[in-house]
Every structure is written in C-alpha cells, then in structure tokens.
Amino acid sequence: MNAPVVVIGATADALVAAHALARGGRRVVVLDEHHDDAPDDGGWIPPRVVRDLGLAERGLQIERADPWAVAPLPDGGRLELWHNPARSAASIRRLSARDAEKWPAFCALMARLARVLEPLYATPPPDPLARGAGDLARLALAGLRVRALGRRGMTDLLRLAPTSVADFLDDWFESDALKGVLAAGGVMYLHQGPRSGGTAFALLHRHVGSPPGVFRPARSNLVRVLRERPGIEIRTGVRVERIRVRDGRACGVVLAGGEEIAAALVVSGADPRRTLLDLVEPGWLDPEAIRAIRSIRSRGVVAQVTLNLDRAPQPGTLVVAPSLDYLERAYDDAKYRRVSQDPYLEAHADGERRVQVHLQYAPYSLADGEWDEACRAALGDRVVDLLAPHLGATVIERKARSPRDLEADCGWPEGQAHHAELALDQLLWMRPTPALARYRTPIDGLWLCGPAMHPGAGIVGAAGANAARVVSRT
User: Fold this and answer.
1) Among 51, 474, 2, which Cα is nearest to 263's?
2) pLDDT of 128 higher than 90
3) pLDDT grade for 75, boundaries at 50, 70 and 90
4) What b/e readout covers 13-49, taking b as 16+ CB neighbours within 10 angstroms?
5) Spatial contact of 332 and 361, defined as CB atoms under 8 Å apart
6) Which tens digits make up the pLDDT trace of 222-234?
7) In this structure, are residues 36 and 10 in contact, taking their beta carbons and an 8 Å threshold?
8) Total-model pTM
C-alpha cells in the first residue's frame, strides 16, 4: 500500500487540510496528541471550506451570541451590543448620544474594509516578488479590491493598518465603556496594549466574516464535525517525537515509544518552531532559516479559567474592559512579567452551568516565580471577585490554566493560541516569515498548515484549506 500523508495535530486547520487532501484522493493519517483540548476561540469559516467539504450537510452549526457583548457599568447598568446595529445604538445612547449617532457609520466602514480582506484570506498569499502568472493575478485582484473602496476607503484602510486601536477609537467615540469593549478585540491574544501600533488592524482582522456591528467571532462545532466526517484515519493520544528526513525530503515520523510511520508527505498543524526546530533531525536547515524561525514571536499572555455555577448565567458574553486606560494598565503589568492585577476578562457560557473565561494579561514567564497551584488559585479567585456580581449565579468550582498549562495541554507555543502573534510584520506574505509564508518548508515533502500560517487564527480552517490547495498543485 502506498505511504499515506501524515498530518500532525487535529486542530480545525489540520483537520480541514486532512479532509481536503483525502478528497483529492490521498490516504491521510492524522496524529492527534492533544485530542482537541484547546478552548474554542471561534472565528469565520470561509464559505469555500464549508462548501468543498460538505460541512452544512454534516451538521455544522454556527453559534452567534446575541448580545455579542455585555459590559457592566460603574453605576450598575450594562452596555449591551447586539447584532442589530439599531438596538446597539439604543444601548449606546444611554452613555452618549454622539456615539450612538456615529455607530452606524462606524459599523458600515469596518464591514466594508473587512470585505476587502475576505477573499484575500480565503486563498494562499501571493508572493509580491514572484513573476508567476498566479501570483501576479492574485496581487492584481487584491489591488483592484482595495481600489474599489474609492479614494476615501483606501485612505481609511491605509490609515487604520498601522494605527493603535486606542487612537482609532478615540477618533470615533467618547464613551469609555464602548471604546473598552471594542479595543479588547484589538488586543486579544496579543502581547500589546491598546496604544500599540497595529492593534486597529487586529480589530479589523477579528471582524472579518462577521455581520456589521459585531466585533467578536462566532463559535461552531467545526472540529467535532470534522472528526466525525469519514475519509481519514485519526489516531488519538499519540505524540510525534521526530520527523524523518532522507536525502532532503520528509519521509515519515517517529512516535513516542519508537513506532515509525512512513509518509509520502508530512503536513504539520503544530507551530513552525516545534515542527522545524524540535521535530526535524538536526542539520537539515541552514543557519539563516534557523535564525528566522527562532525570531517568530509567540508570546503568550492569556490564561483560561473555567467556572462551574449553581445555575445558568445571564445570557451574553460578559466583557470586563471598562476603558482604554484600564486595558493599558493591565498590559503594563505584563510588560514587567506580572499577572495583571485588574485583568481584561471575557466570559461566555459553555454549557448550561459552565462559563469559560479568557483572562489577559497573564505572562508565560513570571518575574517573581513560577506558575504553581497557589498562583493558579489566586488567578481563579481574582476572576471570581471580578465576575461574581455580574453572573447572576454562584460559583461552586473553578479551574485556572496558565499559559504554560495551555502550552502543555493544547500545544500552544508559550501559551499563544495563534502560534504566531497577529502583528503587522507577521501577516499576509510575511506570516510567519516570508520564507515560510506559502506553507512550504525548506525540506521537500514537509508542509505547514497551522494557525501560524496565512491568514492566521480567527479565520477557521483557511490555513488548512490553503495549504492543501498548494500541496495538491505539487
């Protein structure tokens, strides 16, 4: 029997790549160490992925919380942001009539700019220095989409891209509560604060595929549907220790315990540093490639806390980010390798009586010790202190996972869910490095398909689909 394609990992991107390759006639074996233990951050699933893999017919469900954000206010009220922009504007009006008037125009602008990115994200990135017809055509199409925005739209996009989300929102709004909720989406998973350059583009990135006025991604059962979809073999609880390379070409993998699996190709959903520096046998990469891979920024700043309640919580995603200054102070702690004393939190129901909490900022390495049980317990206690008055329920149990736990449990390098930070110098044809941006590695037969690749996390399955498309052309 011909050797299979071996896919390392069973994240959404890895499973999409596996099924796309199997759909093209390949035999595919997926090696899953973590058994989908990662918290679901959600995101936009490009329609082409849904259509090509027949996911709608197999039970794909998209869940969009409404209201998509609920922010407690100092006076005891709540700012509620809904899918209906008019309903959001009515809630905003209680804080600022001026902001309520500006909300529809803001939503329209962001939706128009996000639509420019959708087709760019759903295809492999063009090489701006290539002379091939395919790359030139993709570059021309991208240019035409930007030009279609008109002079004002092009100016808005070029102005937004390098700007801090704080400066961008200050130009639009005056309400601290509204700016805090929006800015939180621009710094999510980033080792940056709202006054860091490029965070306005990160907010736009997270808006791609969402309805106008919704700045948090939808959640879905995509991974479960892909795991149950026939056509590939999935082996769970297995750890890849080594990628075998012979004569400059990947030819198989070695598992913990010594089992070897021959492979026609190896497609890795793990992060590039683990794939190329830990799993590949030493000596196959030149020093310049090693230097570039080591320079990929994957700084984790997020902890996850699970709360079990005595009854169902109030509906909506609860956001604790009351102002731009609050977010910046939370980031200040992380700059000095301290857990934020007043962290930014997002809490959403994950089951009838369970709540998953995103906590930021919690550094991977601490200045004053290690992540231990006492540190995790203190983290959980702080989350309960901040959220308990707003849950409408009593917390009966809590469990905190630090960035180091997320690295061990989920395979996130340094606890970074995106594998490579979504910074301007790690986007598009530079994601995660220019040499790796088109999913190919310096080793023949070894490819990358994880969220470190274009277009990045939050565009669910796109990196896997794009990688499979490039692999199939070779």
Assistant:
1) 2
2) no
3) confident
4) bbbbbbbbbbbeebebbbbbbbebebbbbbbbbbeeb
5) no
6) 999 999 999 999 9
7) yes
8) 0.93
For residue 263, give the amino acid letter: A
Mean pLDDT of 25-32: 96
The strand pair at 260-262 and 233-236 is best described as: unpaired
Residue that has been written with the tokens 């030149």 in this structure: 286
Burial (CB < 10 A; 0-12, 13-18, 19+), residue 2, is: exposed
What's the CA gap between 52 and 229, in Å, rounded? 13
pLDDT at 375: 95
The rounded distance, in Å, linking the Cα atoms of 80 and 70 is 5
Distance CA 469, CA 367 (A): 44
Beta partners for 366? 369
pLDDT digits (tens, 9 = 90+) for 240-249: 999 999 999 9
Q: State how far the Cα of 412 lies from the Cα of 59, in Å rounded to an integer.
A: 28
Place of tokens 């990045």: 456
351 CA to centre of own chain: 22
Are the beta carbons of 66 and 82 closer than 8 angstroms?
yes
Please provide residue 119's backbone torsions phi and psi, each rounded to the nearest 5 degrees: -70, -30
Q: Is 180:217 a contact under the CB 8 Å cutoff?
A: no
- 124: Cβ contacts below 8 Å, ≥ 6 apart: 138, 438, 439, 454, 466, 467, 469, 470
Q: What is the mean pLDDT of residues 85-101?
A: 97
| Rounded-to-integer distance, Cα 100 and Cα 3, Å | 60
